[in-house]
Each structure stands twice: as C-alpha cells, then as structure tokens.
Design goal:
The complex is a heterotrimer of chains A (363), B (568) and C (368). Helices cover 45% and strands 16% of the residues of chain A. Chain A contains 16 helices and 13 strands. In chain A, helix 12 packs across helix 13. The radius of gyration of chain A is 22 Å and the shape is globular. The N and C termini of chain A lie far apart (46 Å). Chain B contains 25 helices and no strands. Chain B is globular and about 80 Å long. Classes of the chains: A alpha/beta (363), B mainly alpha (568), C alpha+beta (368). At the A-B interface, helix 3, strand 2, helix 5, helix 10 and helix 11 of A face helix 23 of B.
C-alpha cells in the first residue's frame, strides 16, 4: 500500500518538475540533487547511535559518493541518544541529524515529535509490509535473533539443540547462560509460539521456567562479553546472542556456531532523521545511501551482520555468513512495523521484563 | 598601600567565588533535583515538580538495602586489604633491615600505572569461574573455583590492591615521623621487643592509622571502575554503579532516583570526612616531630627475612606481574583463551596492529593529552593561588577557601560529570560537547589533591625568604619571579605530573560528558571491552600501561625533594 | 637616623584575648650608632624591628628612617618594605637555597630599588663578599654552606646596596659559642667601618654589652631602661634590668638614715649597709639593694674595713674555669659571689664579707 501511494506521489512530483515553468527538462533538479547542493553547504552529518564506530570506519562508499560531507559519529546507546535528542531539541540546538535504532526505541521519538518524514526512490524496492505508513522512519535491515550460539569444543554436533526443548535438556544443567539485556524475549518467544495472532504467554513462560529449573546462569547485559567467554570455553551454550558478535569471533577462528532453527524473530534496524536538525540535507543523503542497493551491500558486507531488506541489494559478506548458518528472511518472522508497535506495547514488554527478571532470578 | 590591600581582597574573593561556584553547583543541582520529578530534558535549577517521591522510592525499595550492604562490605573489605598490604610493606620498608628495602617504594607504586579499567579486565581474565587462570588449578585440586571475578570478595581484593600504594605512602610517612626515643624509652624500661611494639608503638600509631583507614573507606564507598567492570554485570551494585545504572541503563534515565542515591553517598562521605578531620587533630597531638636526622632502630629480621621477601614477592606478583602478563597473553590472541599449547600457535600481533590503525584511537589519545595537560596545569595554577591566600595572607575568610578546596573530595567523579552536563545544557555556551567541559569537571575533581601539593609547597617557602627579597628592594612581581617561582617549581612539577597521570586513568567523569570530538582513552578502552573485543581491549590496555609507566619513570626522575618521593 | 614614636601593636592571643606586643614605644637611634633592643622572648623587640622594616603593620605611632616617613598612623602612611632603605639579617639568615652565594648577594643590586647592570654589580658583590671574608665562595650553591657561612652571606647581602640602616634580628643565636664570640666583634667592626646605623635585637645580654653603643632593655612591650652598656650594667634602674644584665644579689631594705653625697644607710636583713643612691630618697623609703657577685670581697687578714662587713658561711663552691662561683649564707640570706679560682676556700668554713659602699646600689625606679 505504502509503495503504491509513494509511487504515485513521486510520479506527480516528477510531472510537476517536468512541466514547471521555472525549470527546463534537461536541468530538472531531482530531490537528491537538491539535497546534494544543500549538503555541500552543510559540510557534515552527525550520527548518533550504537553503530557509530562501525559506520564511521567502514562507510567508504558514502564518503566516495559524497566527499563534501564529513561523517561524525557519536557512539551511544539508544537511551542516551533519546535523552540527548530530547534535551537538545528542547534547548533548540539539535546537533544530531541521523540515528539508527531498533523498533522499540522509535516510539518515544515519535511520541516526542522529534522525527522528520523521510522519502526516497529506494523505498519502492523494499518488501511491502516492512515500511511504516507514517513515513517517519525507515526500516533498513532485518536483524534476526539467533536462538543461540554454542561452543564447538564443548558441544558435539549431535548435541546441538534443534528445538526449544533441547535447550532445557538436563545435560545442560548449569551450563547455559542468558543475558540480562534480552529481557523482552518472553514476549518475542510468545509471538513465535503464537496461536493465531495472539501471544502465547503460557508456552513462553513454561520455557523460561524450565530454564530456571535447569540452573540457567544469569549473565549481565553485555552480550558480546558472553559470546567471548563462550568462545574462551567458559560455557557451552548461550541463549539469544547477537549475530554480529558471533560472526566477528568466527572470523577470527573461534570455535563458535549459531543455532538457528525456524522461526527466527526478526528485529528491524531503523534509520531516522530529525526535525530542525543542524544538517538536514546531509542527513537525508546518509539515510538515502544506507537504503540504496550499494549502501545495503556495503553495510551488510562490512558494518553489521544483518540482512538487507532492499530487494535490489545483494547480501554482503556478513549477510552471506548469516545466510550460511540458516539466518535468512525466509526463516524469519517478518512483521509490519505498526503491527510490531501494536503488539509489543509498553505493557507487553514490561510484562515480559518482569517475568524474565523474576522467574530467572535477576535482582 | 590601600590599593595593594584591595587588590589582594579582590583577588581572594574572585578566586573563592569562582571556585565556590564550580564546586557548589554540582551540590546545589543535586539537592534541588533530588526533590523534583525530573523528566528528560527538564533538568536544572527550576523549582518545579517538587516531590519527595525520589527518596521514598529509593529507600522503600528492598534492593536499596542490598546495594547499601554491598557498598559497605566492599568499602570495608578493600580498606582491610589495603591496610594489610600498606602497613606490612611500610613496616618492612621503614622499620626492618631487609636488604634492598630502598626499592620497596618503587615496587609498591607499580599498580598505580594500571587504570582501574585495565585492572578490572585483567582480573576478570584471572578469576573467571571456569577458565580463569587462577581458578583452573584450584578447580583441579578442590573442585571449585578460588574466587569468582564477579563477586564481592574478588572486587574487594582488586580494589584493595589498587589502594595499597596510597596506603603505603600515608602509613610510611606516619612511621617516619614517629619519634624513636619514645620506643627506646620503652626498651630502656626493660620491656621486650614485642611488648614495646604492642604497648608503645601501636597505640601511638593508632590515631593516625584510624585516619588512614577512614580515608580508604571513603574511597571504597565512592569507587566506580572496579565495581563497574567486575560487579555490575552480575547484578552486584554499589552506590556508584547503581547511580550510573539509573542514569544510563534505565530508559528514560531515572535522574531523581540517581540524585537521591547521590545524596546518601555524599552524606556518608561528608560524615566520614568530618570524622577524618577530627582524627587528624588527635593525631597531631600524638605525633612527635623528630629532631634532626635521627633514625630509628631497625628490627633485625634474620631468619624472618624470607617471610619479608615472600610477602614482597607475593605483592609484586599479584599486584603487577599477574595482571600484566595475563593482559599480554590476551592481547596476542585473536579471541581469548586460557593459556595452553594450542593457543600458543595462534599468537600474533594483529590486535596491536588493528588498535594502532584505529583512527579514533588517535583522536582519543590527542583528547586525553589535552585533557591531562589542561586539567593538571589548570588545577595546580588555581591551587597554588589558593594556597598562597590561605597561608600567606591574614584575610579573615580564608578558611572558607580551604573548605571549598576540600569539598570536592566528597563527590564521586560521576556526579560532577552529570552536574556539569546539565549546567552547560542550560545556557548557551561554546563548551558543551567539547573536551573543555571535561577539563572543567576534572579540575573540580582534582582540587583537593592539587591543594595537598601546593599547601606543602607554600608552607616550605619560609616567610623570611620572601621578606629578604622585600628588604633587598624587590617588589611583588620581582619577588614572585625570582623567589617564589624557582622555589615552587619542583613541587608544582610533581603535582602537575601526578595529576596528568591521574587524568589519564580516571574514567568516571568523562563517561558522561563525552561528545563526538571529546572521546578519551579510558572511556574508549571501556567501550572496546564492552563491545566484546577482549583481544583489542587487552592490546590497548598493555599499550596504556606501558605509556603510563613511561610517564611515571620520567616524573620520578624529574621529581625533587622529600615530598616528591612521598607522592610518587 | 631611626626615629620611633609611640609605636603600638597588639596580636590576638589564645583565648581570644589580645596581647599587646608593643606599647607606646619611643626611641631614637643616632646616625652611625649601634643600638640594641635587649629583652626576654615576648618583650616586643622583634615586633619593633619588623615594624621598622615594614613586615609588620603597627596600630599606631610613627616611624622615620632617615628622611623618610616610613609609617605614620596619623597621616595614614605606610611605605612597603621594598621601598624603605635598610638591610636586614634574619635569625634564620633566609638565604635563598636555589641560588649561589653570588646570586644571593647580587640580588638587591639587580632587582632592588636602585638597579644596576650586571657588570657594575659584579664589582660591588665581590667587595661585599670580601668584607665578610667569603670572596672565595662566590659560586658555591647556597644549601652547601655552613651556618656561619650563611650568616656572612646574609650580612653581605644586607650591606651590598649600601643602606643607611642595618637591622639585625638575633643573627647569632643559631651559631655555636666560639663562632658567636668571633662574630660579635666582627659585626661591630664592620658596622663601624662602614659608618652605618645598626639596630640590633637580641636576648643575649653579653652580645648587647659587647657590641652596642647604647642598649634599650625591653619588657612587656616597653623600654624599661635605656643607656650605655656601662650605665645599664652598673646603674640599673629596675630590678628587672639588674637581673637581666649579669648576675646580681638583691636585698630588701629600708632607708634608715638621711642621704649625703649620694650615700645613705639602709637597714637590710643582713645588717645596716652604707649604700650608693643615684637619686634622692626619703627616710623609711623601701628600696632594693643590688650588689654584683664580683664586687663582694673577702676580708683578709687584719685590714678590716669599718663598715659593710658581715659574717657568713660558705655553702657551695663551684669551679667555673676562669673563676669560682661561691654561695654564702649570711643571716639566712643566700648570697652569690664570684671569686678567683685560686682562692683557698673550703665549704662550710666561716668567712667575713665586705660590701664596698659604691657597689651597693639602691635600685630606684627609672623613667618609665
């Protein structure tokens, strides 16, 4: 629906440009050209988010295409980003232009009315149900959550879990670690195990209770640290890691492998631009690049182990590595952004969090 | 003449008010906002949304009690460990005839070149429950690990070793200042050595020791880096990490709650500081300043020297060698593995190459150098002026200035960071997001330490040296240039170098104030570690330690005077 | 050259009470004179010196140095120290440890009120060092000097810019006895040779007596007696002065006969003595008789004087090297004698003592 509407709008826009008396056909400035002209004056774009370091060091294509735009990146988690944006917007001095985050972090920004609408040709190439109708943010990539990661040294091939029950096998008593930060997972698992279109809390709760009975090890928030420790031989199994950290260690030869039986819950990676930011045009160019086929390729080639959603983009090295371990869009549960927001409300997430902490025994 | 006096008054009040504002603002911000329901973007001095809920929530929460106990055990435990190490080493160094004991101070100082983050990382490697290098033999022997890195005992151990150098210095100078005649009188009365020790020496030292213990307790209560690295991940929170958690991990940040906790922390530290001041006065009554160059009788160790050597060796190994070598090991592996023959095959210098190639590392290094130089020079400049006013003039309000200098000791660095961020967001200024806001916060944080150096330095310049210049006809500026500056320079250099090294290590202030152009090395390292890159973090740690070690050696060779040896 | 008029200064003491250090002090030092302020610690002598230098600010009074009004409370004048013309030697010498001997002495010439070039300065510095016999040590770093050497450097530094006034604050108290003796003479000779005015502060009465032209004995912030050393010693106007300078025997007495020619009879515990009076005294007036130990003589043989002879018993004999310190009890009073060490005496032997009338001084209050 969204793409049809936008296609029509763009058609009208191009018509208007073609027949507008001020411009000749040959020299009609496209939206991108306008943005480029403006961005040249702005000279820089400021990105804030927890992908900052990666973006800055590895987005070569962007720098080559728009050499007049300097990319400044602030490494920060989404809570910090949100606070900072709110504080600065209120003071009337918003220095952040672009951010990248997950779906749940978009909501407070929407509510606070900080987001600016984003439009681009590339959006036409995305699967129909992955973009929000409001246009206030862009869904760029799919980050499926692997069910687990195992140490090839401590787990034989025939012992690798292939279902949820395998995780709570008594032989793994006291040897499975979970992360504190994955506390929304009871809700996500409830969706994966759903009956019809409703969350299946019972099945989800049952799983986590069994985990507790099996002396699951409570780890802190650092997912990367747990994967490192698993690679070092501290644990055989880690539930719900992040694909990126596992791939990184695999590249270095660490004895780790993903556990990915269908279905995988897919998180969306979202890009946002902000109202009244310091460099709006440069920000537009950045996001436009990030959703373009070349941008998506470069992104999934060097920046992040996620799957590109632009159908015209070919998967980069990292995405390919994921594909090879069973992480594909086909294996994942794709949802509409609005649906995500409707189902995974604050109450639902709080319920999941409370359950997670209390059942597993986090203080 | 009248103009000169007024100039002095103006100078005094300018300095006092400027410092007072920068020191008082954090406190004021804290107090005000702990009584408000604060929301994102609505921080500051406005008296809106007043409430007591923050305190109610903070203290009715059962977790608060757990955190309070954790903090207490952590502070007491690390104080205990530090006292054991510090006292024993000071005793060995000052009162026994152990051979080569003149090298003990250098050995004791070695843990100082490792920032808290680095120590935390190293000890996590050493004490990981299953793969920790120290735990594996223990598991083989006893079936359970010696210590879990993520536990209070382990944290106490690491923090205690961290504080041992300071303890050694303080107790060493106390022992040095004791009049040996008091003990010899005991011996002359026919009492055996151990009786003299227990009935004369120890009771004499007790008030001073109690003072040192109090200081250590305060540092333990405020500690941030070790509890953050080793405890927070396992849900073991102390005051500082709880506050950080409320500000960083909670979404939206729980400012009010964080500030309520801060107030408790500040009350605790201020209370302990007050006790310390009282204790200091009692100590001065007991300590008899020695006459000229009189050395105490040394205890002959004989067969017991082996014990002394063993203890020293133990300290050297656990304090410096073990952590450093485990970091070296981790830094040459692509991903962390406990030492083994197979792992040896994977050794390479790749991590170092990667780290040195990271552009933002050099940005962070540059920022850290600017931060270090600016904050150390800035602090010393301000404190030398302040010390001059306090010790060389008779202005009535100079006790106020002294108080302002000492007050920041009660604030955890993190709180200063938060307060500065809010302060500078509330009005238009070019400083926000730059390294300079971190510099200012560091200066406030360092004032008490800087004034320790400058007080001692100013007092040492005898008034008559100044008067002799005056009598020779030199005015204010000439006296300053030719008498004050040359005489103060050694002490000021010592202080500046000390603060320079310190600002490299401190992480708590910068953690909350960083901007796109103001990343500093300590936070940078922490981020790398948090990102799971154990190898890169270890490589950077090793490089940092080597750099800091180099700086320290350079400072020691530049240092002059007895006070210098004490501080280093 | 130095004129001090009604100088007053007090300090906050313990228990919040102010202690008057100097009370309405007035004195004058003539050009070229060697004037000493002598007194016990706390008498205000150092405060006075420092006020003249400008390091202390008095509460009221007036100080003139040469032609300059250095301080005047009435006219609200207070010239800062570096603008007053004086040299000072501190008790601690205050030699700058980061400079050499040369640099220390050259400082007033290079950075003082009247600055001269380095080459000119060199000549004068060498001359100053020669004055104090340190010309070989010009390049020695200050911390490597002995106490005596430091003191000479301090002296050279104080004199190099040829001030008209030299202030000395107990400069000899940190030296050992032998050195002190040498320096006493040297300092006086130096000052006299250069013809400058010296104000000397000390608690050592020997220094005061041997070095000064005039001495002012101070106590509790006031001058008790001012005079030449001989006057102060031989004619103390106050028991305090008498006790402070040298040793003295004191006897309470009452005038029991009219005075004539400056002598009169006084009834004392050891008998009636004929004593010397400096000022007229009335009958029955209470007085204190002072006689110095070295002035009491033994009656030898049959040549006995008519008056002022008493019987006593030797209690203690102490050999002090050049003399003998002798305690004799006379009619219950303890008297102290100083006699030659070769006098044949035994403890507990009876003796007869003679007090020459000119030496029995009746102490009468001097001017306040």
């Amino acid at each position: 629906m969204r793409s049809n509407k936008s296609r029509f709008r763009l058609f009208l826009l191009s018509l208007a440009i073609c027949f507008s008396p001020q411009f000749s056909w040959a020299a009609a400035p496209s939206l991108r050209d306008q943005m480029i002209a403006q961005a040249k004056k702005e000279g820089e774009v400021v990105f804030m988010g927890d992908l900052a370091t990666e973006l800055k060091t590895l987005l070569k294509g962007f720098s080559k295409k728009y050499p007049f735009v300097q990319l400044k990146a602030i490494d920060a988690r989404s809570e910090e980003t949100i606070n900072r944006i709110a504080a600065e917007a209120k003071a009337g001095r918003l220095s952040i232009d672009v951010s990248g985050m997950s779906m749940e972090d978009v909501e407070p920004l929407m509510k606070g009315n900080f987001l600016a609408k984003f439009e681009s040709f590339h959006l036409a190439d995305f699967p129909a149900k992955t973009q929000p109708r409001s246009g206030l943010y862009v869904v760029g990539q799919l980050d499926p959550i692997p069910h687990g990661v195992y140490s090839t040294k401590l787990v034989q091939p025939n012992e690798v879990p292939k279902s949820w029950d395998d995780f709570v096998n008594p032989k793994w008593k006291g040897k499975v670690i979970v992360s504190r930060s994955r506390n929304e997972l009871p809700a996500k698992l409830a969706w994966l195990l759903r009956k019809g279109n409703d969350l299946n809390w019972d099945a989800s709760f049952e799983f986590f209770r069994k985990l507790k009975q099996n002396d699951v090890v409570l780890g802190g928030a650092g997912i990367n640290t747990h994967v490192s420790r698993l690679a070092a031989g501290e644990f055989p199994l880690f539930l719900f890691p992040a694909s990126g950290s596992v791939l990184r260690l695999q590249n270095k030869g660490a004895p780790v492998k993903l556990i990915t039986f269908p279905n995988l819950f897919g998180d969306y990676e979202v890009w946002t631009v902000f109202k009244d930011s310091a460099h709006p045009a440069a920000g537009w160019l950045l996001v436009d690049y990030l959703i373009s086929p070349e941008g998506q390729f470069e992104y999934t080639d060097t920046v992040n182990a996620v799957l590109p959603l632009n159908k015209k983009a070919s998967p980069g090295k990292l995405a390919q590595a994921l594909n090879g371990q069973g992480v594909t869009p086909e294996n994942s549960d794709l949802m509409e952004p609005e649906q995500i927001l409707k189902i995974f409300t604050e109450e639902v997430l709080k319920k999941a969090q409370d359950f997670y902490f209390s059942t597993l025994g986090y203080k | 003449m009248v103009a000169e006096l007024n100039l002095r008054l103006i100078g005094f009040w300018t300095l006092t008010l400027a410092l007072g504002i920068f020191v008082a603002t954090p406190l004021a911000l804290l107090i005000v906002n702990s009584f408000r329901t604060v929301s994102v973007g609505d921080l500051g001095f406005q008296l809106t949304h007043l409430t007591l809920l923050n305190y109610v929530e903070a203290y009715s929460n059962p977790k608060t009690f757990g955190m309070f106990l954790n903090s207490l055990w952590f502070a007491l435990g690390s104080m205990g460990v530090a006292m054991v190490f510090g006292c024993s080493l000071a005793f060995l160094c000052e009162r026994t005839d152990l051979r080569f004991r003149q090298f003990i101070p250098a050995l004791v100082m070695i843990p100082l070149i490792m920032p808290g983050v680095v120590k935390g990382i190293a000890w996590i490697f050493l004490l990981s429950p299953r793969i920790g290098v120290l735990n594996q033999p223990w598991i083989a022997l006893f079936g359970r690990p010696l210590l879990d890195a993520q536990s209070i005992p382990a944290m106490v151990w690491v923090e205690g070793i961290s504080m041992s150098p300071l303890t050694f210095l303080l107790i060493g100078s106390i022992i040095q200042r004791m009049d040996p005649a008091l003990e010899e009188a005991g011996a002359g009365s026919g009492a055996p050595k151990w009786k003299v020790l227990s009935r004369v020496t120890l009771p004499l030292l007790m008030p001073a020791l109690a003072g040192v213990a109090l200081l250590l307790f305060i540092r333990g209560i405020e500690a941030f880096e070790i509890p953050m690295l080793m405890g927070a991940n396992a849900g073991i929170f102390v005051f500082s990490t709880n506050i950080y958690h409320a500000l960083r991990d909670a979404s939206p940040p729980e400012y009010g709650l964080a500030f309520a906790y801060c107030m408790t922390l500040i009350l605790l530290t201020v209370g302990a500081l007050w006790l310390y001041q009282r204790q200091l006065r009692r100590t001065e009554r007991y300590t008899v300043v020695m006459g000229k160059g009189y050395r105490p009788r040394l205890i002959h160790l004989g067969r017991w020297s082996w014990l002394g050597w063993g203890f020293l060796g133990f300290y050297g190994v656990v304090g410096a060698l073990l952590p450093f070598f485990i970091l070296l090991w981790a830094s040459v592996l692509p991903y962390y593995e406990p030492p083994s023959w197979e792992a040896l095959a994977k050794v390479s210098l790749d991590n170092y190459v990667t780290v040195l190639r990271m552009d933002d590392l050099w940005d962070a290094a540059k920022n850290t150098i600017i931060l270090g130089l600016a904050s150390s020079v800035g602090t010393m400049f301000l404190t030398v002026l302040a010390s001059w006013f306090i010790f060389r003039t008779y202005l009535g309000w100079r006790k106020l200035l002294d108080f302002v200098l000492f007050l920041p000791y009660a604030f955890p660095g993190m709180i200063v960071g938060v307060a500065f961020m809010i302060l500078f967001l509330s009005f238009k200024n070019p400083l926000y997001n730059t390294i300079w806001i971190i510099v200012l916060a560091h200066v406030v944080n360092f004032l008490p330490i800087g004034s320790r150096f400058t007080h001692a330095a100013i007092v040492q310049v005898h008034k008559e040296l100044e008067e002799a210049a005056s009598a020779s006809g030199a005015g204010f500026w000439r006296t300053l240039r030719h008498v004050w500056v040359p005489l103060l320079t050694p002490a000021l250099t010592n202080g500046t170098l000390f603060l320079l090294i310190l600002s490299f290590k401190v992480m708590s202030v910068a953690a909350l104030l960083q901007g796109p152009d103001s990343m500093v090395l300590s936070v940078y390292l922490w981020n790398i570690w948090g990102g799971g890159e154990a190898g890169l973090a270890s490589a950077l740690s090793v490089l940092l330690v080597i750099t800091l070690g180099f700086f320290t050696i350079v400072s020691r060779s530049l240092a002059r005077g007895p006070a210098a040896a004490r501080e280093f | 050259m130095i004129k001090v008029e009604r100088l007053s200064k007090s300090y906050p003491g313990h228990d919040d009470r102010t202690v008057a250090a100097v009370r309405e002090l007035s004195f004058q030092v003539e050009p070229g004179e060697f004037y000493t302020l002598l007194g016990p610690s706390g008498c205000g002598k150092t405060t006075t010196l420092r006020s003249i230098a400008g390091f202390e600010r008095p509460e009221s009074g007036e100080i003139r140095i040469g032609d300059q009004m250095a301080y005047s409370s009435a006219k609200n004048v207070n010239v800062p120290p570096h603008k007053r013309d004086f040299g000072i030697v501190f008790q601690s010498y205050a030699i700058w440890p980061h400079m050499t001997v040369y640099d220390n002495v050259a400082f007033p010439l290079l950075h003082g009120r009247v600055r001269i070039g380095k080459r000119e300065a060199r000549e004068r510095v060498i001359k100053a060092l020669q004055l104090v016999q340190l010309d070989g040590l010009a390049d020695r770093p200050a911390p490597l000097l002995s106490g005596g050497q430091q003191q000479r450097v301090a002296l050279a530094r104080a004199l190099v810019h040829e001030p008209r006034v030299l202030l000395l604050d107990e400069p000899l108290s940190n030296l050992d006895a032998k050195l002190r003796e040498e320096m006493r003479l040297e300092i006086r000779q130096l000052v006299k040779r250069l013809g400058i005015t010296a104000l000397y502060v000390t608690h050592d009465q020997l220094e005061a007596l041997t070095m000064s032209d005039r001495v002012a004995v101070m106590n509790a912030g006031r001058i008790v007696q001012e005079g030449t050393p001989v006057e102060i010693y031989k004619k103390p106007s106050d028991p305090f002065v008498a006790r402070f300078i040298g040793l003295a025997n004191f006897l309470d007495g009452r005038v029991c006969g009219t005075l004539s020619d400056g002598f009169g009879m006084v009834q004392t515990a050891i008998g009636i003595l004929r004593c010397h009076f400096v000022r007229p005294a009335s009958l029955d007036e209470k007085t204190i008789i002072m006689i110095r130990p070295e002035d009491v003589a033994f009656v030898q043989g049959s040549n006995e004087p008519l008056q002022n002879v008493v019987d006593g018993k030797i209690e203690v004999l102490v050999f002090t090297g050049d003399a003998m310190d002798c305690r004799v009890s006379v009619a219950g009073q303890d008297l102290r004698l100083k006699i030659s060490s070769s006098t044949p005496l035994q403890p507990s032997s009876p003796v007869r003592l003679y007090f020459p009338a000119e030496r029995c001084l009746a102490i009468q209050s001097g001017s306040e």
